[in-house]
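Provenance and format

Records in this collection were gathered into a single text stream. Each protein contributes a sequence line and a token line. The two records reproduced below are adjacent in the stream.
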Amino acid sequence: MPSLNITFTDEELAEVRAAAAAEGKSLKQYVHDLPLRERQRRQFVRYAVSWGEAHREQFDEAFPEEVPPADRPQGSQAA
């Protein structure tokens, strides 16, 4: 199975260890899960942005006082 060696400063490693402990995971499991969680987070954000854009008109009609200024960043540019 492929593996990866990652170099951390002492401070970085202490932070990663503390984060792993806070989640009740081993350091190895925590570092393994990070890119998977990031992929899930990005997928969620993409869906949330597309849902918001698809429903923007309905929201604007229901809450006209909440309509953002025209120059406000939209979609993924706002994130």
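Adjacent record:
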Amino acid sequence: MLEQELKEARLSCQENKNSAPAVAEFPGAADLLNQLKTRRKKSGANLADIEVVLEILETDRSEI
């Protein structure tokens, strides 16, 4: 009984992994900085800051 439940849970997990939505691509660092500056005029972020944030997000995404 438990073996059957475990087998079904594994199949369900695999199906969920296969049907997971694709991860969206991020815009370029310069585009993101422009969007940020448009929304928050006094933002102190610069292009280097945005590039680091994108690197962090890429690293996190690759660990999934």
